[in-house]
Write a structure and sequence with these properties.
By secondary structure, this protein is of the alpha+beta class. The strands form three sheets. It has a seven-stranded mixed beta sheet with strand order 3-4-8-9-7-6-5, with helices on both faces. A three-stranded mixed beta sheet has the order 1-2-12, with no helix packed on it. A two-stranded antiparallel ribbon has the order 10-11. Helix 7 runs antiparallel to helix 13 and helix 10 packs antiparallel against helix 12. The relative contact order is 0.12.
């Protein structure tokens, strides 16, 4: 290259541009540096995504030869009659779990259905509908089909019992294994009304929600047929006899928390109208063989609380999980579910029941005990001793912060479930935000790259032709990305 050409290139590179008055060689260096950093940024995202998939695949899928530990928890109902001048509430503190029920009329004569014996006589008097009826999302079954599948709702087939009904395992005529829930307290709900509510539940589809396959309505019987989740529920694995070392490692527990949060977020924010669970607890979190959580019993509160029934004023929940404002006033929205979810997080981390009267005074209530431990800087001592390996201090503090925010006594200060997921996934957000910091950091050094093109006149002319387009793209990218303020939010949260 001649001296004239070199002088020409130097002159062109030294000219000031319209971009903040920067010289052309500085702009070129910034553009090339930004392209390099963008490439590194995309590579880091790909690596992060691949690492996340590998971690999920490496989650222990250890299958236990024996069935999940069984915990017999008798559920007690406490009924408050507003017509009585002084309501009487009886609490059997010897039980780990209690049902709290307020109703506006007596429950005398209430039928709790069958399930304690293999007596099929009651089915003979029931009406028999058509054998097959397919729906848009599933099908409805006859009483005869479900009787055959569960051996007449035999007690030996019982796999669970709660405030909404008794659950039986069953095998359909096609060999498909299902879980049949015989609903209690339905008060002979109108068939048309019941079908409308069930249809709404049946159309809900999410990987972290138990799938409803169909239902049965005959006479006074109201039954729901669910997919069978074959690894028990979270309550059994947390509080059952699993030995000195729990198969629920820290990573598995965090996966359960995140999956449950995603299922609840879908109910709260992914459906219209939104669905409030009303009974979030560990026994309603079912687990498959890969320890993936599935939330069960969603939608049943509305299903059993129709506008034409007095149960609309009834407050149902599990003792220890119920939000303070919910138990006192009956005010019900997604914030009460978030409170229960916060209790669930504490239960998963500590391995303790929400209320345990067998523990010393000061440790009976899980929330108060955990707050005291965190306040005394003893966070490490709240971790379940059955966890094989202690978690990192940073990860522990983050999940405790999420739990404490969810159980804020002021319901208006509790985060929405979508933001809870954001906090739980803060590690991934931090990686992306750190890349953003490096993106701007490299701008100050990128001017050195112009030496690569210093002696190339053709490349210089090509850059001069495309500079206007590149500067527009770069400006829009910087403005839009900086406007998200993700970096500030993540660093503030993790500090």
């Amino acid at each position: 290259m001649s001296v004239y050409d070199a002088a020409f290139v130097n002159t062109q590179l030294s000219k000031k541009t319209s971009i903040f008055g920067l010289r052309l060689w500085v702009v070129i260096g910034i553009l090339l540096g930004s392209l390099i950093v963008l490439t590194l940024f995309l590579i880091s995202l790909c690596l992060t995504s691949r690492r996340k998939r590998q971690n999920q695949q490496q989650l222990p899928s250890k299958q236990i030869a024996t069935s999940p530990p069984i915990i017999s928890k008798e559920i007690q109902e406490i009924v408050h009659h507003p017509v009585a001048p002084v309501p009487e509430i009886q609490v059997d503190i010897g039980k780990i779990e209690h049902r709290v029920v307020f109703s506006d009329r007596p429950s005398s004569g209430e039928s709790r259905g069958t399930g304690s014996a293999c007596d099929t006589a009651s089915f003979a008097s029931g009406s028999v509908g058509p054998e097959v009826s397919h729906l848009g999302w599933g099908r409805w079954y006859t009483l005869r089909e479900l009787e055959a599948a569960t051996n007449g709702l035999c007690e030996e087939n019982v796999i669970g019992e709660g405030g909404y009904g008794i659950v039986y395992s069953g095998i359909l005529s096609d060999g498909h294994r299902v879980a049949v829930k015989n609903l209690l307290n339905n008060r002979g709900q109108a068939e048309k009304e019941f079908k409308v509510e069930v249809d709404a539940i049946g159309r809900v589809r999410h990987k972290n929600l138990v799938r409803l396959l169909g239902y049965c309505v005959e006479g006074a019987y109201r039954m729901l047929v669910y997919e069978y989740v074959d690894n028990g529920n979270l309550d059994q694995w947390l509080h059952g006899d699993v030995g000195d070392v729990s198969p629920l490692t820290w990573d598995i527990r965090m996966n359960i928390i995140l999956g449950t949060a995603k299922g609840l977020a879908y109910l709260h924010e992914g459906l219209e109208p939104k669905v409030v669970h009303r009974d979030v607890k560990s026994s309603n979190i079912l687990l498959d063989r890969q320890w993936n959580p599935k939330v069960s019993d969603f939608g049943l509160a509305k299903l059993l609380c129709s506008e034409n029934s007095y149960v609309t004023t009834r407050v149902m929940g599990t003792f220890g999980y119920v939000a303070p404002e919910y138990a006192c006033t009956g005010m019900l929205n997604e914030k009460s579910d978030i409170y229960s979810f916060g209790i669930l997080i504490m239960e998963i981390i500590s391995g303790r029941s929400p209320v345990d009267y067998s523990r010393p005074q000061g440790e009976v209530n899980l929330v108060e005990w955990l707050k005291a431990m965190v306040g005394n800087r003893k966070s490490e001592e709240v971790v379940d001793p059955k966890i094989p390996e202690m978690p990192a201090s940073k990860a522990l503090k983050r999940i405790l912060l999420v739990a404490l925010r969810c159980v804020d006594p002021d319901a208006t200060k509790r985060p929405k479930m979508g933001y809870v997921i954001h906090m739980l996934e803060a590690d991934d957000l931090l990686v992306r935000d750190v890349c953003t910091v490096f993106f701007f950091f490299f701008f100050s050094f990128s001017f050195k790259i112009y030496y690569v093109i210093y002696n190339s006149k053709e490349l210089q002319l090509s850059i001069l032709e495309s500079i206007s387009i590149l500067q527009l793209v770069l400006s829009n990218f910087v403005i839009n990305y900086a406007g998200t303020s993700n970096c500030k939010r993540s660093f503030t949260f993790t500090s």
